[in-house]
Amino acid sequence: MKRSAWVLLVLLLFGLLVVPAAPSHAWRGRGGVLIGVGPAWWGPPYPYWGYPPPYYPPPTVVIEQQPPVYVEQPQAAPPPPPSAPPAYWYYCSSAQAYYPNVQSCPEAWMKVPARAQ
Q1: Which pLDDT tens digit goes with each residue over 40-66?
Q2: With contact defined as beta carbons under 8 Å apart, do 17 and 37 qualify?
């Protein structure tokens, strides 16, 4: 009885220390045995027959905002430049009149200093 308990204990310890190898795609088509020594709880964090469940990140939250509204204010017209009296008048001697009363002159215009009317 003592001997069978001893054998059972050795087999139990041996079973805990032998870790079966995970199947690998690199050894496909070949047979192989791998005996490892260590506790049986060592190994991949997922079972040999599948992959861990996929991770799906939470959906992205998009908050739509209305674009800002810009109202362009009408610009005021620039003030007219101060009206200065012309420094010279142009006289046509053949028409005996000044420009702009006469639009064309057959001879050259005469430049005359402006005077109050």
Answers
A1: 556 555 556 677 778 999 999 988 888
A2: yes
Total residue count of the chain as it appears in this document = 117
Helices within 1-117 (DSSP H only): 2-17
Distance between CA atoms of 70 and 66, rounded to whole angstroms?
12
What b/e readout covers 75-84, taking b as 16+ CB neighbours within 10 angstroms? eeeeeeeeee
Please, which residues bridge with residue 19 across strands?
36
Backbone angles phi, psi at 108, to 5 degrees: -70, 145
Predicted TM-score (pTM) of this structure: 0.28
DSSP assigned state of 13: H
Residue 50, Cα to own-chain centre: how many angstroms? 39
